[in-house]
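Run log, item B.
One chain of 112 residues. Sequence copied directly from the ordering sheet:
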Amino acid sequence: MILAIPITEGKLTQRFGECESYFFISADREEKRLGKGVIEVAPPHAMHHLPDWIAKKGGEVVIAGAMTDRAKSLFEYHGLKVVMAGDTQMNPEELAQAWAEGHFDNKIEDGD
């Protein structure tokens, strides 16, 4: 799966709409292994365009610090899974590895 993680200054952005960039990385849950990550500059914040932009970049799972119910619904409408990591200072690689190891299973919002 391809994870999309909103970041600012190398850390998870708590308000995803205000991030500088998105960190995209492939993660294999069977192997508990990560692929190579890439940072993409975030587009200007436009709530209705962001999920489509992430999906077009290959994103399948969004790991966010916090997100409104309305935003979660919009992401899910575009086929994206939403994981709420909460208030954490982990860098994006650490978050992706934690997801690959199943640490966020209880926080996946679409029941997956």
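Observations after the first pass:
- Residues 44 and 97 are 28 Å apart (CA to CA).
- The domain at 2-107 is CATH 3.30.420.130 (Nucleotidyltransferase; domain 5).
Flagged for discussion on Thursday.
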